[in-house]
Design goal:
With about 180 residues, the protein is mainly α. Helix content is about 60%, strand content about 10%. A two-stranded antiparallel ribbon has the order 1-2.
Length: about 180
């Protein structure tokens, strides 16, 4: 998904500065869906304004440069809707933990066990946050309830799988990787 569409989506939720859009994707409501950096956000916002898809006004701040606030236009909303009609690409799972576990044979078994236990705890915390959010917003839109349920199901499946199978990767932790002997030759 391109930065223009991601910015339009953020602006559909409300007026925002580039920094606020970055925060939405970094730690806010949109952080579970996609990541976008400042290097993409600001050029995208400039293009959106040039194309009439967003408007910008400056908000004065004490002892700081004026803050640029962006708002989606009706033309921008139409463009967002058009962009949402495109078939999305496949989901990509990017995980530092999975990368570490790929090389589990290079790590001590205790470290692998801790990594997995910590991640299971994190998954359970995420499920509790979803449950709390659903309890706070029982009248949430169907799309929000659906996505909360999907997120809960994914975290639960991952936690359950790791709990059920962690002994396998811990036992294999010191086994040489296939091809490692050939690479050493």
């Amino acid at each position: 998904m391109d930065a223009r569409t991601l910015c339009l989506g953020a602006l559909e939720l409300g007026d925002a500065s580039g920094y606020e859009i970055k925060k939405l994707y970094e730690e806010g409501d949109l952080s579970h869906f996609y990541a976008v950096g400042f290097g993409s956000i600001y050029p995208a916002l400039t293009r959106l304004v040039q194309e009439g898809l967003a408007e910008c006004h400056e908000q004065p701040q004490d002892k700081r440069p004026d803050k640029k606030i962006y708002r989606i236009t009706p033309k921008g909303r139409s463009e967002l809707i058009r962009s949402l009609a495109v078939q999305p690409g496949p989901d990509k799972i990017r995980s530092e933990l999975c990368f570490l576990l790929l090389f589990a044979n290079l790590l001590p078994a205790a470290q692998i066990e801790k990594l997995i236990d910590d991640r299971i705890a994190w998954y359970r915390e995420q499920m509790a946050e979803i449950d709390a959010c659903e309890a706070e917003h029982p009248d949430a839109e169907a799309s929000a309830r659906f996505l909360g349920g999907l997120g809960h199901a994914i975290y639960k499946a991952a936690a359950d799988y790791m709990a059920a199978h962690k002994s396998e990767i811990i036992a294999a932790a010191q086994a040489p990787m296939p091809g490692a002997a050939r690479a050493a030759e």
